[in-house]
Design a protein that fits this description.
Blueprint (H helix, E strand, L loop, with lengths): L2 H6 L2 H9 L5 H8 L7 H21 L11 H8 L6 H26 L5 H7 L6 H10 L12 H25 L4 H4 L6 E3 L2 E7 L3 H4 L2 E5 L5 E5 L4 H31 L1 H26 L6 E3 L4 E6 L12 E5 L5 E5 L6 H16 L11 E3 L3 E5 L10 H17 L4 E5 L8 H17 L3 E6 L7 H4 L3 E9 L4 E8 L7 H7 L4 H9 L3 H88 L5 H14 L24 E4 L4 E8 L4 E6 L2 E6 L3 E5 L10 H8 L5 E3 L5 H17 L4 E5 L6 H11 L4 E6 L9 E6 L1
Parallel strand pairs: 5-9, 8-12, 8-13, 10-11, 11-12, 20-21
Antiparallel strand pairs: 1-2, 2-4, 3-4, 6-7, 13-14, 15-16, 15-19, 16-17, 17-18, 21-23, 22-23
Helix pairs in contact: 2-3, 3-13, 4-13, 5-12, 5-13, 6-8, 6-13, 8-12, 9-12, 20-21, 23-24
Length: about 775
């Protein structure tokens, strides 16, 4: 991709925002080099790895990436025989530790049946260098100090050093505590100069203590003298310090050599940890802007649903659906300069670049993007009133360059195509340029304020008109993209709203051709029809979601019912088998007793003995406790007809017959659910009575009012929330819902407690429970009705 395009479409700014989510300089280095790829397989892999990282962030909320350092220079110096400093060795141990933590973290998540093939493949390459890490940590602490336990010799030297220092201090303290010291010393303290213990002596008493002068104060009135009596002790201290430094140097050389032995493993750790930091930075950025994974294709198809510009705050940006590449390959956005057209262009271009760089895009799930070989953009600030030749020339230079390179695998974005020159010539150039790029098969989106291009989309196949909606009431753009509706001039409406005399406006209208008026009226009608269609489509989607949820709940209940039924049958079969086994054992015992009696009494068996044996055999027969059957369905002499009220015996629910589906099945309406039921499972209850009064409009109204299966109370005040709950429960009961969900969030818990207290005391509530993990957890209360 051209650097100029990355800058114009503000991809560089997105990259800077991703940088904020990196945990190390290694990750930041990879992010700084992040550019979109034009290889389809590579883009698919990049999106897959970002999606895996997003899954991990969603499940765990954090990733153990702390403690990673760029140790590549340290490894190189150790390999060529250099001696690493304690701080460099600490960074190596810290990076090894971070890699072990990350490896265990990913493997544990994968064991929880979470599919993470790419991340698992990454961490599988990490070799845990536990021995090297522990060796360094046992020798050097986190602040970079070599520990006493690094070697026995160092421990001994440190012990001697402390003992000698104690003796020196003891000698000096006895000097400064003497009565004569008060007048000879500037201050009764022990200090250090040139690594030797000294005391501050006044100038006039310099000869009293003898020894060596190491320093003097700025005024020259105080000399820092090492008394003669401790010169020998200080010499011993210096000798021990030298030996200490020699031993520390030996330890560092040894640790550096061990580091060099693991050169390859350490390089792999650095590479993998840099890549993981990079991947999780992309995932955390996607979470921040509420992005989703787009499906990628190499067919030039773009379907962005509710796409947002990532650099505009979420609470301010207007999301738009942007569709291109299926039924049409060129979109021309016409209309006056309202500020929304350029944002739409940049949103599309930026989403394409982000997706090809492995970043998730700020759009709804299910969005789709193509992998383009190149993205071209001619976007500039065309909001100035004066358009000079130099501005037009600069645009044409960009356009000429684009026309030299563009092909079928390109995405081309033109902002205010043909602007900056004579309107007629500019419109003609715009049409010619669009024809050229469109004929090459590229995906093109162009904005223009030329009215001549309104007819462009109607005269050419594969071209669609669009516009950015403008609210005449507020005199401001809504920034909502209207696909299929060309832009229209709002000059007369705006002038009227601003108070221009009607006479002047009417005179102006007379100067506009009849064809132009008809076109504007047609556009206005199209806008109205489109808004109405979108509203109805959204309502249909809501109904479909509710029906799908109800269908899912019903299926779940039926599965539970049949599982319970099978379990009870299996238990009954086991009990019956046990009874039969017991009966067989008793019968065998009776037979054995008869045989014994025959043997012992030589077949002279008395009648009363046979009667007793027979009674025992009869007692061995198991008594099968028959389950209490439902009372037989009272067959009413009635031929079932559509509209009859019936009871569905398999579910214990009342309903109404809709129509006969087959000889043995009816379609039954239960609440808002329709299902097929066998006629043998239907009990006739009666025919609805036809009264002279109007039907129950209340119930009808409830069904038509589109009662949702969930109530969202987040952000509501406590009193208002309870009033909404009360009304919502009534509506849900009238809609005959078996259960509903109330979303109150977690927060302080006050709203949750208040809602649940109200529901516990409601006469129609059977029971309440918190939502499951997939339903919202403790932020949602699920209500089941009686």
């Amino acid at each position: 991709m051209q650097d100029r395009v990355l800058k114009v479409l503000e991809f560089t700014k997105v990259r800077e925002q991703v940088l904020e989510h990196a945990a190390s300089s290694l990750g930041r280095e990879k992010i700084k080099n992040l550019v979109p790829s034009s290889d389809f397989e590579e883009v698919v892999k990049l999106q897959a790895e970002t999606d895996e990282a997003t899954t991990v962030v969603r499940i765990k909320g954090h990733v153990p990436l702390a403690g990673i350092h760029d140790i590549r220079a340290h490894i190189k110096r150790s390999v060529i025989g250099g001696v690493l400093s304690p701080h460099e060795l600490v960074q190596i141990a810290s990076t090894i530790h971070a890699s072990r933590q990350m490896k265990r973290f990913i493997e544990e998540i994968a064991e929880e049946r979470t599919e993470l093939p790419i991340l698992l493949e990454q961490v599988s390459q990490i070799i845990p260098l536990t021995d090297l890490e522990q060796t360094i940590k046992m020798a050097i602490d986190e602040s970079g100090e070599v520990l006493d336990g690094a070697s026995e010799l160092l421990r001994s030297l440190r012990h001697q050093l402390r003992a000698n220092e104690a003796r020196v201090r003891e000698k000096l303290e006895s000097m400064i505590r003497s009565s004569s010291a008060q007048k000879m010393l500037s201050d009764a303290i022990i200090t250090i100069r040139n690594d030797r213990f000294v005391i501050p002596v006044k100038q006039e008493y310099r000869g009293h203590y003898g020894g060596i002068i190491h320093d003097q104060s700025a005024s020259g009135q105080t000399l820092f003298i090492e008394p003669q009596v401790i010169v020998q002790l200080n010499n011993q201290l210096q000798d021990i310090r030298v030996k200490e430094q020699v031993e520390i140097e030996r330890i560092l050389i040894e640790l550096s050599a061990k580091t060099a032995e693991h050169e390859n493993e350490l390089k792999v750790i650095v590479e993998i940890m840099a890549n993981l930091d990079f991947i999780f930075a992309k995932a955390r950025y996607g979470k921040k802007i509420k992005a989703s994974k787009p499906e990628m294709n190499n067919e030039g198809r773009i379907c962005l649903y509710k796409a947002r510009h990532p650099l505009i705050p979420i609470d301010e940006v207007v999301p738009n659906d942007i569709l291109i590449g299926k039924d049409y390959t060129t979109i021309v956005i016409t209309g006056p300069n309202t500020g929304g057209k350029t944002v739409t262009l940049k949103t599309l271009g930026l989403c394409a670049l982000m997706a090809q760089a492995g970043l998730q895009v700020p759009a709804l799930d299910g969005s789709e993007l193509a992998v383009f070989g190149e993205v071209y953009a001619d976007i500039g600030d065309e909001q100035s009133i004066e358009q000079s030749l130099s501005t037009f020339s600069s645009h044409m230079v960009n356009i000429v360059d684009i026309l030299k390179r563009v092909d079928y695998n390109s995405l081309v974005l033109f902002d205010e195509l043909g602007a900056g020159t004579d309107p007629q010539e500019g419109a003609a150039l715009a049409i010619s340029i669009l024809d050229e790029v469109h004929n090459r098969g590229a995906r093109v989106v162009a904005t223009t304020h030329y009215p001549e291009l309104k007819a462009y989309g109607y005269n050419r196949e594969g071209v669609l008109n669009a516009s950015v909606e403008f609210d005449v009431e507020t005199l401001s753009p809504t920034y909502k993209l209207l696909l299929g509706v060309p832009g229209r001039s709002n000059a007369f409406e705006i002038s009227k709203r601003l108070g221009l005399n009607d006479k002047v406006i009417q005179a102006a209208r007379s100067h506009v051709s009849e064809d132009t008026n008809q076109i504007d009226n047609m556009i206005a009608s199209l806008e109205h029809s489109k808004r109405q269609a979108e509203t109805e489509m959204q309502e249909a989607r809501d109904y479909l979601k509710q029906a799908e949820k109800l269908h899912h709940d019903l299926q779940k209940q039926m599965i539970e019912f049949y599982e319970k039924k099978d379990s009870m049958l299996e238990k009954a079969a086991e009990e019956a088998e046990k009874l039969v086994d017991d009966a067989k054992q008793e019968a065998e015992k009776v037979i054995r007793d008869l045989r014994k009696m025959r043997t012992e009494k030589h077949a002279e068996i008395k009648e009363h003995e046979l009667i007793d044996a027979k009674r025992r055999l009869e007692g061995a027969a198991p008594e099968i406790k028959k389950s209490a059957k439902l009372p037989a369905k009272k067959t009413k002499q009635h031929t079932l007809m559509p509209g009859d009220e019936v009871k569905v015996l398999t579910f214990g629910q009342r309903g109404a017959l809709v129509e006969r589906v087959s000889d043995s099945e009816w379609q039954v309406q239960i609440g808002i659910l329709k299902m097929k039921v066998k006629e043998k499972d239907i009990e006739y209850l009666g025919t609805p009575k036809q009264t002279e009064t109007r039907p129950m409009a209340l119930v009808k109204g409830r069904e038509d009012s589109n009662v949702r299966l969930e109530l969202d109370l987040r952000g509501e005040r406590y009193e208002d929330a309870l009033m909404k709950v009360e009304k919502y429960i009534d509506d849900a009961l009238l809609a005959n819902y078996p259960r509903v969900s109330i979303i109150h969030g977690k927060g302080t818990g006050a709203l949750r407690q208040g809602v649940q207290e109200y529901l516990k005391n409601h006469r129609s509530v059977k029971r309440i429970r918190f939502g499951e993990a997939g339903e919202g957890g403790t932020g949602v209360t699920v209500v089941e009705f009686k």
